[in-house]
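Example record

Each entry pairs one chain with its bound ligand, glycinamide ribonucleotide.
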Amino acid sequence: MFNKSIISQVFMKRIVIFASGSGSNAENLITYFNSTQNINVVAVLTNNPHAKVLDRCKKLNVSALSFNKTSFYTTNHVENLVIALKPDLIVLAGFLWKFPDKLVILFQNKIINIHPALLPKYGGKGMYGMHVHQAVVANKESETGISIHYVNEHYDEGAIIFQAKCSVNIKDTPEDIAAKIHELEMQHFPKVVEQLLGSEVSN
Ligand code: GAR
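Structure tokens for the complex follow.
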């Protein structure tokens, strides 16, 4: 007779997160999946050795590692590490470098990204964080939101999995919008990830 924890370890779905900065989404995903049986964040990888996400991982007791441009784009260092981690899903949570084509091909339909706008609006190179919210204000948009999408070879162009909207008021500053987006991300991101992995569990 097997006990429940052995069974859940055998069927455990493994998430690897890539993040570049603060890591509030990474922390939210880690804490959310700490309280589930079948899904676990096994590692966080960052391109920034000073990123706050590293402190969060230390506090939460999650393995974390930083890497440089050479090990990401030129050698197989990061690629081999990710393969060894056997992820069921790779989650880009505020990861600002372009994901290498070789990893996209290797993990086809297993890499997702969260973007702080309603793609295809406000996507592409240079469109991240506050730059997005500043553009939304400059263009007098009446709504914005979040997009969770698969990662393909082009910035922010993979198939959209989920979007949620919020209104933009005439007096909203980019900081006000950032706060609304943060709330949407905290509310929806873990659940969307859980649904994606959950649909595979029942196959
Ligand atoms: C998030 O708002 C995420 O949507 C955005 O960076 C922030 C990271 O915050 N991502 C992009 O702009 C990607 N183009 P966090 O480090 O606190 O999770």
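The pocket of glycinamide ribonucleotide is lined by residues 19, 21-25, 93-94, 114-116, 128-129, 181, 185 (CB under 6 Å).
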